[in-house]
Design goal:
By secondary structure, the chain is mostly helical. About 50% of the residues lie in helices and about 5% in strands. The N and C termini lie far apart (about 105 Å). The mean pLDDT is about 90.
Length: about 350
């Protein structure tokens, strides 16, 4: 009888101790880690085990507590031996359980890089060089070497990367981002070409890409893109020169200093559409999906000319005849001069 009472007492004590240990374990697992700084991250490298990860946390001033508790929690969450390589965000409320599950599932920090519509390949490469933590594999490459590294030797890089926002993770390189952007443009161009309007004066998807790049540079007003494309398509059909300033500027390269002079319009380059008929030899910028759609499905109409309104809206006046166009240009020049006069006099233009 006495023995049974002793055993019962021991069992009760054991149960209390187990309950206490379980509560302590749960409190450890679900209590935010102390010492996490603002914007802190944890980088798990190839070959890192749990002990190595805990050492990295401690090196950041984060108190990790009992290693045995971490090992037990890793087994409970099935994270033991399954920590995935990558960079993990350490939010101020991060708990051991949440962190282990994140490392088990590979929920790494995903950063973003945006290619802006109308960027040139020079703009794109300059922007990539400024991205912190993105490995730079293309820094010593010229454009030809870059395209060869992407698996497209001999292809001009201009216009080949779709303006969108791309996710990347620590360990990625600029070449990885460019590969995704190239594939995205390839897909978008194929879709636009497949849905093209009949009787376009464009022989290949590459010609559509070139026209789209011109449309992209001519207007930032979304609903004008099909109209701008329509003007250029009708000019091509009529055998007229495109006479578009952005191609001239592109052909000038570093010689362009912000002002386009009459002499620039008459100086021949492969990209001067005032001196040469047809499309330029390559795209002049990175066109977005809307510009691709506009180039392959231009708006119908009879306009052959356009000029900026000049009121700051970015919009244009479209004309079917040269006489109407000249009148619109005259209005633009008068408005431009009035605005400059107002600025000189310190008054707002009317």
């Amino acid at each position: 009888m006495m023995l049974r009472r002793v055993l019962l007492v021991l069992l009760l004590i054991g149960a209390v101790l187990l309950a206490f240990a379980w509560q302590r374990f749960r409190a450890f697992a679900d209590t935010p880690l102390p010492g996490i700084g603002a914007d802190a991250t944890l980088v798990v490298a190839r070959g890192d085990n749990l002990d190595k990860v805990l050492g990295k946390l401690q090196a950041q001033g984060i108190a990790t507590g009992n290693r045995l508790a971490w090992q037990l929690l890793a087994r409970q969450t099935r994270a033991a031996g399954r920590l995935q390589v990558g960079e993990y965000a350490l939010a101020s409320a991060a708990t051991p359980r949440a962190l282990l599950i994140a490392m088990r599932d590979g929920k790494v920090v995903r950063r973003k890089f945006t290619i802006v519509e109308g960027w040139s390949i020079r703009d794109l490469r300059a922007a990539l060089r400024k991205v912190p933590l993105l490995a730079q594999k293309t820094a010593g490459m010229d454009d030809a070497a870059l395209m060869a590294a992407l698996g497209h030797p001999g292809q001009h890089p201009e216009g080949r990367f779709l303006p969108e926002t791309y996710a990347w993770v620590r360990g990625d390189a600029d070449l990885d981002v460019l590969e995704r952007a190239y594939a995205a443009m390839d897909k978008a161009l194929a879709a636009a070409w497949a849905a093209r309007a009949p009787d376009l004066p464009l022989a290949t998807p590459d010609e559509a890409l070139t026209l789209a790049s011109i449309v992209e540079k001519e207007t930032g007003v979304a609903d004008e893109r099909p109209q701008i494309a329509g003007v250029f398509v009708r000019r091509l059909q009529a055998g007229m020169r495109l006479q578009t300033d952005p191609t001239v500027i592109y052909g000038m390269g570093s010689r362009y200093a912000g002002n386009l002079r009459r002499a620039d319009l008459t100086t021949d380059t492969p990209y001067n559409t005032y001196t040469r008929a047809g499309l330029p030899p390559t795209p002049i910028a990175m066109p977005g999906k809307a510009a691709l759609r506009a180039a392959t499905r231009p708006a119908p109409g009879d306009a052959l000319y356009f000029v900026a309104v000049g009121d700051g809206s970015g919009r244009h006046v479209f004309s079917a005849s040269l006489a109407d166009h000249n009148a619109a240009v005259k209005d633009y020049v008068q408005r431009y001069r009035a605005q400059r006069q107002a600025v000189r006099e310190g008054a707002a233009p009317k």
